[in-house]
Amino acid sequence: MIETLQAIDAFVWGPPMIALLLGTHVFLTFRTGFIQRKLPEAIRMSFRKDPEGRGDISNFGALATALAATIGTGSIVGVATAILAGGPGAVFWMWVTGIFGMATKYVEVFASIRYRVRDHNGNMLGGAMYVWERAFKRPDGTVPWWARLGAGAFAAFAVVATIGTGSAVQASAMTGIITAALPVPAWAVGIVIVGLVAAVIFGGVHAISSVCEKLVPVMAVAYAGGCVVILALNGAVLGDALALILECAFTAKAAFGGAVGSGIVMALQFGCARGLFSNESGLGSAPIVAAAARTRNPAEQALVAMTGTFWSTVVICALTGVVLVSTMITYPDIQAEILDNPTFYTGAVLASAAFAKIPYVGTPVLVIGMVAFSYSTILGWSYYGNRCVTYLLGRRAIMPYQVLYVAVAFLGAIGVGDVVWTVSDIGNALMALPNIIAILLLSGLIARETRHYVYEGHLDEVCERPIPVLEGK
Predict the structure, then answer these.
(1) Could you list the residue ranges that cross the membrane (predicted)?
(2) Cys-Cys with 427: which of 118, 119, 161, 354 at CB 3.0–4.6 Å?
């Protein structure tokens, strides 16, 4: 069964999916007039409070929660995995996916806010499931079967992905790092994780966003600062590391004596795959929490949301990549160890070995970064699953889902997570498909409204479009 699941996983995350996601990024970049050029303004908007906007949480709260879910193990271990499989050139292509992925993040969040609804308590709900239902509704008010299928498929695959990617995998990563550094049993770490997670997620989006608003800036700045210190220590080879990354991105150079992957195709494939996975642009996850943001119009929060891709991939993943490559140049014995034990060296092992070579700061930066990133990811993805299970089964399903979510976190902590990880990885790819189809179909409408709000100077305009109240569930 495991071999079958791994084969399915390799297929759904193969070249066709990478081509679809990267192609969507490039297409939407041109469709939105290269919205990335508005990044400086978007960053400034991230930190302002907008009392005139409609929503449940602040712009920054929504961004912080989305970043909490995005900056996870992929920001460290995922980068190391890309370098092992695709060579140093993979870092460059990972960075490229972040640049173009900002446009996709902008469009999917724009659609989510434009078609969001309210529940019976007045709380905002959004995401690809509501985009499918509302954007393609017939004039008589009925929803076509294919739109309901798109909505249901996205929500179902997202629930599967949240349980694995958001819970089991992150808990497993935290436990592995902690038990390697401290003499504590995995089950004890699992109990602590369950307690810390349950204390927050049962409080709903307000509790989650409140914690993420405080945790995300501190953990991101601390990790980035630690990486800068390491780069300073590796300053003598920093130029060589950057040159090697660029050279391997465009030539078939065998890096580190053949210890890691090489070739343009491998660098492109693994760099794009890990980059797309790390920033989640196109998966449809971030729009779920972005729909709860207080915003005057869809373009305002969409601009804020696209900065998440910039921070997670263009900054954090790039820093990790340069740290790993420069450290491998400085310490050739890492290359020798990989050649001697090719099956033993995984992304996690490479990251641990590289950071451990840096005296005093290396291991603390890795441990603190991994624990903080993984914990925040558990919080962020719990909200995604909460909203999707509510759409599928109603409000009564929230509590059972949350109990299952924290239970799976414990199972991941004690090592019962391999199958769950593979299934959730498949769910990640499959939830992206209905999301991408929806935003491509709506790209023309969103491009027109972007022109009005962003390029014609109406970004402060309050959108008066009514937000319907969801009936039934």
Answers:
(1) 12-36, 57-84, 90-111, 145-164, 184-208, 215-237, 310-331, 366-384, 404-423, 429-447
(2) 161
The answer to whether 449 and 298 have CB atoms below 8 angstroms apart is yes
**Domain of 364, in residue numbers:** 2-455
Name the one residue in this structure whose structure tokens are 């004596």: 257
**CB–CB of 160/384 below 8 Å?**
no
440: which 2 tokens?
């491509």
The strand pairing partners of 225, in sequence order, are none
CATH number at residue 278: 1.20.1740
Are β-strands 117-118 and 124-125 bridged in parallel, bridged antiparallel, or unpaired?
Answer: antiparallel
Tell me: the pLDDT tens digits for 272-287?
777 777 778 888 888 9
Tokens of 149: 């299928």
How many domains are contained in the chain? 1
Cβ-Cβ contacts under 8 Å for 100 (sequence gap 6 or more): 22, 25, 26, 29, 36
Residue 310 inside a domain? The answer is yes
Q: What CA–CA distance (Å, rounded) separates 313 from 320?
A: 10
- Domain contains 143: yes
Q: What is the DSSP letter of 54?
A: B
Tokens of 72: 């996870």
3-class DSSP assignment, residue 55: coil
Radius of gyration of the chain (CA): 21
Q: State the DSSP string of 145-170.
A: HHHHHHHHHHHHHHHHHIIIIIIIHH
How far is 184 from 7, CA to CA, in rounded Å? Answer: 35
Residues 308-318 have pLDDT tens digits of 889 888 888 88
Using alpha carbons only, what angle is made at residue 273 by residues 272 and 278, rounded to the nearest 5 degrees? 95
Q: For 140-173, b where at least 16 C-beta lie within 10 A, e where not — what string?
A: eeeeeeebeebbbbbbbbbbbbbbbbbbbbbbbb
Full-model pTM = 0.88
